[in-house]
Amino acid sequence: MKAFVTGGAGFIGSSLSERLVKDGWEVTIFDNLSAGSKENLEQLVTNQHGESATLIVGDCTRPSTLKNALKDCDVVFHFAANPEVRMELNNPKDCFRQNIYATHNLLEAFRKSKAETIVFASTSTVYGEAKVLPTPEEYSPLDPISVYGASKLAGEALVGSSCHAFCKRGIILRFANVIGPRSNHGVVTEFIHRLAQNPQELTIMGDGSQNKSLEAFNVGTEDSLSVKDIGTAVAKTMGLINLRFKFNGGLGDGRGWVGDVRSMLLDVTKLKSLGWIPRLNSRNAVEETVKSKLHSLGNGGLDNVRKTRNQAKDSDSSEG
Ligand code: NAD
Using a 6 Å cutoff on CB, does residue 149 contact ligand 1? Predict the structure, then answer.
């Protein structure tokens, strides 16, 4: 089987590509390397045919570069995006271009290819402030409160309508917060950076059986952690004690920023019914991520984090 993975040099896409190659797929990665890197692909092994993945450096916002790239593939995994949720860090126009226009271009190429299936990386933020927790896939109305969530919901609708119109199959993966060794954004990465800066204090913002052309699956752990608990777990794994928390109050209702969803927990029963189980709970995932990040920083790594942080004071980031 041949896979075409957009965003395959990024955090989640590179792990997906590794797994596909291991499982014997022929993988073509399409990435503009704006956030992803060739280093993320260093763990790529060769499959039983001695093949590894092929990297095409290209941009989904440029239809001409996509034109022949996915001609022969069987399954398209669309993971390229601007993954920033925080509105103040995300220009709505850029979000539209990277998450909606790019998806439209990819779907045009998908339509003309022989590929039958597309898997789209969506997000729990499409639910907005869901009144049902854990939230099942059929929850409605889908009412995102961030431009990012809205752009991903638009992406879902474009994938669904294209699959319906062209008799193809679409699978939507609604990821909760994803963390792990190669992630370079999100709350855990952010807390490591803040604690490298000030090990004594952590600032926390805010206190079915029928055949369908489109199917959505929630992907997440079965538990949740408060942001304060995440901070405690990050600090503990970094070996920091006597930590005090400084809450900046956020927007007054405890929310950290405009578009921040206060409580989120996905119902993953549907994916589990297919045999998938979350290997780690939320706390273990945070601890494993911090350990691997500290390991990859090596000796003196935190000093580098501090220096980088000082150079880019404003670059805050977080998913969900
Ligand atoms: P990431 O930034 O590590 O990966 C995105 C990749 O897409 C990067 O390699 C980047 O270089 C590439 N890219 C961006 N724009 C592109 C373009 N126009 N053309 C080609 N390549 C482009 O992010 P990630 O965390 O791995 O996220 C992967 C997907 O999962 C995204 O669609 C994101 O919205 C979604 N998602 C992530 C999370 C999370 O917690 N990380 C949660 C929910 C959904």
Answer: no
